[in-house]
Write a structure and sequence with these properties.
The protein is an alpha/beta fold. It contains 18 helices and 29 strands. It folds into 4 domains: 99 residues, 5'-nuclease (Rossmann fold); 98 residues, Beta-Lactamase (2-Layer Sandwich), CATH 3.30.450.90; 211 residues, Rossmann fold; 149 residues, no CATH class.
């Protein structure tokens, strides 16, 4: 129009077009604002008498908008061109072809593809600049240095104003929309993310942010596998078979840089490699196709990739539960997976899977953890599963599936992960500080205390004697409640926790001094004499009476009698015995019966 080619023409603008442009602008999409700008320029030409402009037709209905993908709105626009016998001007190649088939006079304007020129914000970068941070009213800032020694510093002396930032933003958006070497990754109200060559740029505007802000990030180094420690071992491991790998580290540690090196190494060795990224900013070779969300969902992307059948997929970054589920599904489908996750310790990468996937499946999903620190490989873990008695527990009947986390280089076990009383516990082993109360001991004490508190009103103290033996100290009034009728309650707790527990009076546990020690020694002598007749507990030294049972099976309920007189009802334990904890009312009755040399018998109910 500005060239004068259509001087004196009447321009018909369909209301359906105006509605679409307005909706896009209301949603914060730049294409909508661009459309409004074009309409304003047409209105200015009409005011100058160069052209006439008319708005015609009706806005699309909700039903028509719902069928927009099927071409309903495009059909409305073509019908208006036909109704006015007008030349149909479009840059939509499909619309142009259909309009020509309908017999319309069509002028197709091919979208311009311009070479990406240097952006104004690139002037803030130098060879050691990883990211530039520009905000209205703030002096320009940047992260500069070498990997492992990055500092956040001022790179200008004058605060920026909103108008300057808007000019930068307009240039970025325009370049991203029109260049073959750039694209808009995300366009939402208040946030635009663009990729221009190797620079990822985020533009935030109010009300999403409290001020106009532009953040631009560019990789400062590109590496190969040869630049890292454990290079040969890692190469051999990756080529041995398809793996599940988590690359972990703190922000800025160099995780994505290592992931890019892994991707290109696999590609060079004949593997089909794809990436899943949002945003797409890994700097990889052209042979490696980079995918983002399909229809707003990485799950749809994964479904599509399974049709492509890659050997390895690089997932950058795995953060939310949905990401871990997609990663797991693809791994279990047989695809080699390399995921990038944020973690401050190597074990934290695995911990992020706990609760998101079934515990026993973790080694099938992730068998290797690579922890990056200061731009280099710091730790590599090998992850396997084994059925065994966990560290800190002793009895063979406590064996269960245990995830073994070993140092890849030394093969030394570093952690064990397993379930304990329906909870998942991660226990550090030797070389990682050794077993400590922060591991199984602390968990066991907390679980015992929680179970016992349900039957007490006063304070509860727990003392662990070994990995599977404990004493619970409660007030004298609470002892009978903890023991329960016939010792049933404490035995239920023992069965649930896989521990042997005795209840004692809290006041006695606090006794100190010579007289207290003398009384304790006297009680111990009496107990030793009685122990000759009663036997000791099969699993340790806890003060509990043990009555062997030969004619009833474990779990069966029986009666304990003294010379035929009823004493209590009990459940036969796993070892074919009945345990009666000392200090209980029932134990005192049993003591008196033994002292009177009565015959103790066990009778099935």
């Amino acid at each position: 129009m500005e060239s004068g080619e259509y001087a004196g023409a009447t321009v018909y603008v369909p209301e359906a077009v105006v509605g679409e442009i307005e909706a896009q602008a209301n949603n914060g999409r730049e294409i909508g604002w661009d459309g409004l700008s074009e309409l304003q320029r047409l209105a200015d030409l009409a005011d100058e008498g160069e052209i006439d402009i008319e708005y015609v037709g009706e806005r699309a209905t909700e039903a028509e908008i719902g069928r927009a993908a099927a071409g309903a709105i495009d059909a409305i626009i073509r019908d208006i061109a036909s109704e006015h016998d007008a030349t149909f001007v479009t840059s939509d190649i499909v619309q142009a072809e259909v309009a020509q088939a309908k017999g319309l006079d069509v002028e197709y304007l091919e979208p311009e593809n311009r070479e990406v020129e240097a952006l104004a914000i690139e002037d803030y970068f130098d060879e050691q600049t990883m990211s530039v941070h520009l905000k209205d009213g703030v002096v320009p800032m940047a992260k500069r240095g070498e990997i492992g020694n990055i500092t956040y510093q001022e790179i200008g002396g004058t605060p920026l104003d909103a108008e300057t930032l808007k000019e930068y933003a307009s240039e970025i958006r325009d370049t991203a929309k029109r260049s073959d070497d750039a694209f808009i990754e995300l366009s939402e109200e208040g946030m635009t993310i663009a990729q221009v060559r190797d620079i990822r740029i985020a533009i935030a505007t109010p009300p999403f942010s409290d001020g106009f802000e532009i953040t631009a990030v560019r990789p400062i180094v590109k590496t190969t596998m040869a630049d890292y420690e454990h290079e040969e071992d890692l190469k051999e491991r990756l080529l041995e078979r398809d793996r599940g790998v988590l690359i972990a580290g703190a922000p800025g540690a160099g995780k994505s840089t290592f992931a890019q090196a892994v991707a290109e190494f696999l590609d060079d060795n004949g593997y089909v490699v794809k990436t899943m990224e949002k945003p797409r900013d890994l700097q990889v070779e052209e042979e490696i196709t980079q995918y983002t969300e399909l229809g707003g969902s990485m799950e749809k992307t994964a479904d599509s990739l399974l049709m492509v059948r890659p050997d390895y997929t690089i997932y950058d970054e795995v953060r939310k539960t949905d990401d871990f589920e997609v990663f797991s599904d693809m791994r279990l489908a047989g695809v080699g997976m390399v995921g990038v996750v944020h973690a401050t310790r190597p074990i934290d990468a695995l911990q992020r899977l706990v609760g998101r996937v079934e515990l026993g499946m973790i080694p099938q999903i992730v068998d290797t953890v690579v922890f990056i620190e200061a731009g280099d490989v710091d730790t590599v873990y090998d992850v396997t599963t084994e059925v065994k008695v966990p560290e800190g527990l002793m009895e063979e009947d406590l064996a269960r599936p245990v995830i073994q986390v070993r140092d890849f280089e030394t093969k030394t076990p570093a952690y064990e992960i397993y379930t304990f009383n329906r909870q998942v516990v991660t226990v550090p082993l030797e070389g990682e500080g050794g077993p400590s109360e922060s591991g199984v001991d602390k968990l066991a004490k907390n679980e015992i205390e929680r179970e016992v508190r349900s039957a007490t009103r006063g304070p509860v103290e727990v003392e662990l004697r070994s990995g599977n033996q404990a004493v619970v100290y409660v007030t004298e009034d609470d002892i009978s409640h903890v023991i329960g009728k016939g010792g049933g309650r404490i035995q239920d707790i023992e069965n649930r926790l896989g521990l042997t527990i005795d209840a004692g009076r809290r006041r006695q546990a606090r006794a100190r001094g010579r007289a207290g020690r003398g009384r304790k020694r006297g009680r111990e002598r009496d107990e030793r004499r009685r122990d000759g007749r009663r036997g000791r507990h099969a699993r340790g030294h806890l003060p509990a009476y043990v009555i062997p049972v030969t004619e009833a099976s474990p779990g069966e309920t029986v009666e304990v009698r003294a010379d035929g007189e009823y004493l209590c009802t009990a459940t036969v334990g796993r070892g074919g015995e009945i345990q009666i904890s000392r200090g209980s009312a029932i134990a005192e009755e049993l003591e008196r019966a033994i002292d009177r040399e009565l015959l103790i018998t066990v009778v099935r109910e």
